[in-house]
Protein: Peptidyl-tRNA hydrolase
Organism: Periweissella beninensis
Amino acid sequence: MKMIVGLGNIGQKYAQTRHNIGFMVVDKILAEKKVSLKQTKQAAMIAQTTINAEKVLLVEPTTYMNDSGIAVKALMDYYNIDLADVLIIHDDMDRPMGQLRLRQKGSAGGHNGLKSIIAHTGSSEFKRLKFGIDHPQHNQEAVVNYVLGKFSKEQQASLEDGIILAMQMIEYWLTTADFQKTMNKFN
């Protein structure tokens, strides 16, 4: 079983914000597959589906971004999922709006959700789908307000195109069962 985790913050206050792009991609997959999330004891909302004959666990942690690792680790343990079968979808301020990048491993790069996952799993060697959201001014207050803000009208087309591309990347990975090949095709 593969586990696809969209990172974000729970609650209506954060819906459709830049930091919730992971949730938005998972929500699009849920809509395509006509499945719904359900609450678990592992601090997450989950749905199980099949994509190209591969069992997939779709996940949205309910811990808020900074504690995402709690849910990721608990679900890995509960479903006996290896870290090699986990894909984390998250926002990336170091990429232009709508630009996507697949990575097999790496540092947290200042992303608190990734820091939490690394801390709870004890490893930085997990697959990521980075979704570019642009970068605001370089002071911390501007960054916080920016990631917790909604996408601008100018960003909407790139957002929608990026979500479609993210779904294509995920489907290709699940079809080929080869992340390196998927990276070579899309990066």
Observations:
- The radius of gyration is 15 Å.
